[in-house]
Amino acid sequence: MSRIQTTFDKLKLHKRKALIPFFTAGDPDPKLTVPLLHALVEAGADVIELGVPFSDPMADGPTIQRSSERALKHHVSLHQVLDMVAEFRRSNTGTPIVLMGYGNPIQAMGWETFAKRCAEAGVDGVLTVDFPPEESHEAFAHLDKHGIDPIFLIAPTSNDARVERVAKMARGYVYYVSLKGVTGAGHLDLAAIEKKIPQLRRHIKLPIGVGFGIRDAETALAVAKLCDGVVVGSRIVEEIENSAEQDVVANVSKLVRELRLAVNRA
Amino acid sequence: MTYNYPDSTGHFGPYGGIYVAETLMGALDELNQAYEKYRHDPKFIAELNYDLKHYVGRPSPIYHAKHLSEHLGGAQIYLKREDLNHTGAHKVNNTVGQALLAKRMGKKRVIAETGAGQHGVATATVAARYGMECVVYMGAADVQRQSPNVFRMKLLGATVVPVESGSRTLKDALNEAMRDWVTNIENTFYIIGTVAGPHPYPAMVRDFNSVVGKEAVVQMPELAGRQPDAVIACVGGGSNAMGVFYSYIDMPGVKLIGVEAGGHGIASGQHAAPLTTNSPVGVLHGNKTYLMQDENGQIIETHSISAGLDYPGVGPEHAWLKDSGRAEYVAIDDDEALRAFHDLCHLEGIIPALESSHALAHAIKIAPAMGRDKVLLVNLSGRGDKDINTVAKLSGITL
Question: pTM here?
Fold first, then answer.
C-alpha cells in the first residue's frame, strides 16, 4: 500500500482532514529544504508537496514564480531535489512527499530514470502541472511501474468527461483547483467548492484535496470541512519570502501549526 | 493534399499536443470546437476574405528583386511582399482570423503576447476594428528595443503590459498572457501570434497564414513562369514560414528552407536556433518541440538582434518538417542579417524587418552559386520601420 493511501486511510479512521503544505525545493537556500521538510512534519503536515523549480512556471502566480527564481539562483536541479528527498527519508519514513512541477525538467532527465530515482529516493507522488491526462500516457506508465502515484489536477472548468478521465488515471489523491487563475490569486468561492465536490465524488473514489486561495486558519477550516485535505502553497512561500533566512524554519512552523489547529476543527 | 497534419489530438508526429494545466483544458476544448465549426463555414470564410482583401490589402504582390539578383549574379530572387500588408507584416492575416472567431464565440476581450511588437500591433488593430478590449503582454526588454510599436499599440487603444519576469522577452510575455487567460477565461480570447502553443493554435495560426502560400502558388507561374526552386522564410515561432510553406509541402520539387536566428553565431551559444543546433526535445508553452534548454531542463536565454526571432522554442510543425526531411533549417547570424537589411535598402528601395532580413540573408548567401535560371522565393514577412532605432543604434547613430 502506498504511503499516500496509508496516510489518508489513517486520517479517515481518526475523522481528520489532511493538511498539505507546499514550498519550492531550494527556496530560499538548498540547505534549508530538508530542515523545512522535517519542520513541516513536526508542525502537523500530513503530506508535503515539494515544488521542483522551473524557469517558466506558467500556471503559477508571481509569488511561486519568485520562489522558483530564488531556487534557480542556487542552480537547484531535479537531481538535487531527489537527493533532498532521499536525505529527508533517512529520518522520516512515514510522511508522503509529492513532487510538483512542470514536465520539462523530467522530460530532460527521461521519465524512466526519473520514476526509478523517485522510487529510490522515497518520493510517493508526482504532479506534473502541464501534463494533462491526454499527454500523460508515457509518464503514467513509468510512474506506475515504479509504484509512484500520479497526482492530477481538476479545475472548476473540468466537465464530467474530463473528471472521469482523471479518475481513471489518478492515484493517491486528486487535487481540486478551487478557483480560476494562477496560484496565489483571488478569493475563495466556498459555495462553488461545496457544490463541486459532490459532483467530483460521483467519479472519483480517491481523497480530494483542495488548493488555491487558502490563506489563513479561517479559510483552511472552511475548505477542510468540504473535502479530504487542504493544500496551502503561496501563503507558505510568502512566509519564506518575508522571513530573514535564520527565521524561515521557525516562522513557517508557526504558520503551519496555526493551520493544523484550524484543520483539526473541521 | 496528401500531407495531413496535425492528427485529431493536435500532434505532428511526436510534436505538438496539449501540454497545459487542467485549468486551461476547458477553454481549449471550446476553442477547438469553435474553430472546427467555423473554418468550413461559408459565411465565416466570406467575412474573412472580405477583410483580408479590403482591410489588410491582399493579395500581397510578389516582386522580382532584379537589381539584387543581378548584383549577386546567380539565382533570381523574388519577394513575397507581406511587408505591404496593413500594419506592415504577415501577422495581421492571423489576427483578423482569430478576432473574427473571437467575435463568433462572444468574447469581448482579446489578449496577446508580442516580441517585436508586430503581432501586438496586429492584435491591437483588429481589436479596434471589431470593438474589443485589448491587452498586450510584452517583455520589458522588447518594450525598450521596439518602442515605436509600443506607441502604435497605445494609439490603437490597447493596454501594453511590460513583463519584468525571467529574461524579459517573448517567452516571458507568453507566460504572462497564459496567466491572464486562465484568470479571465470566460470573457477573454487569447490571440496567439505564432504556430506554437497548445492545439489547436499551431494548426489554426498556420491555416490563417496559409493565404500567403496559396497566393504565391498562383502568382509565381504568372510572374516567373514557374514555381520556385526554393521557398525561404525566417523562423522564430515560425508563423510566416508555415504560412508560405504550407501550400508547397506537397510539391516535392520545391525546397523549403527555414532560417533561424544565429545571434552572435552558433558557436557562441547565444542564438535562437533550436532546430539548426538539434536542441533537445522538450515541453514549453503547451507543446512538445525542439527547445533550447540546459542539461536540467531549464529554458535558457536566447539572443537575436531581432526581437521576433528571439524565442527558445519553435512551432511543432517545423520540428516535424525537419525530422521528416521535408524542410531544412539553417541559421543566419546578426551581422549577416544586418548586411542583408542594408543591401535591400540600397539595391531595391525596400526596408525589410530584421526578422525577414534573416531569410533574405540566406537567399543572398546561396544565390551566387546557383544558375541564373534558378528561382528563389523569399517571404518578406514584414517591413523594417519598427527596426530603425535598433539599426541606428548599431551604427552608432542617435535618432
Answer: 0.96
Average pLDDT of the segment spanning A184-196? 82
Residue B64, domain extent: 58-88+210-395
Verify that B69 and B144 share a domain, yes or no. Answer: no
Residues B108 and B62 in one domain: no
Which of B361 and B183 is assigned the larger pLDDT? B361
Contact B178 A58 (CB under 8 A): yes
Q: Domain residue spans in chain A?
A: 3-264
Question: Which DSSP state fits B52?
Answer: I
Q: Is residue B223 part of a domain?
A: yes
B200 touches chain A (CB under 8 A): no
Considering only CB atoms, which chain B residues are within 8 Å of A78? 296-297
Q: Is the pLDDT of residue A66 over 70?
A: yes
Q: Is B21–A104 a contact, with Cβ atoms under 8 angstroms apart?
A: no
Domain boundary among B133, B168, B201: B201
Helix (H, G, I), strand (E, B) or coil at B372: coil
The Cα B362–Cα B232 span in angstroms is 8
State yes or no: pLDDT of B350 exceeds 80.
yes
* Interface probe, candidates A79, A106, A130, A175, chain B, greatest B C-beta count within 10 A: A130
Share of chain B above pLDDT 70, in %: 100
Look at residue B325 and tell me if it is in a domain.
yes
CATH superfamily of A3-264: Aldolase class I (3.20.20.70)
How close, in Å, is residue A97 to chain B by CA atoms?
Answer: 21
B187 within some domain: yes
Shared domain for B168 and B285, answered yes or no, is no
Candidates A54, A158, A182: best to mutate against B (most CBs of B within 10 A) is A182
CB contact under 8 A, A59 and B166: no
A104 with B297: Cβ contact below 8 A? yes
DSSP states along chain A: --HHHHHHHHHHHTT--EEEEEEETTSS-GGGHHHHHHHHHHHT-SSEEEEPP-S--TTS-HHHHHHHHHHHHTT--HHHHHHHHHHHHTT-SSS-EEEEE-HHHHHHH-HHHHHHHHHHHT--EEEETT--GGG-HHHHHHHHHTTPEEPEEE-TT--HHHHHHHHHH--S-EEEE-SSSSTT-S---HHHHHHHHHHHHTT--S-EEEESS--SHHHHHHHHTTSSEEEE-HHHHHHHHHS-GGGHHHHHHHHHHHHHHHHHT-
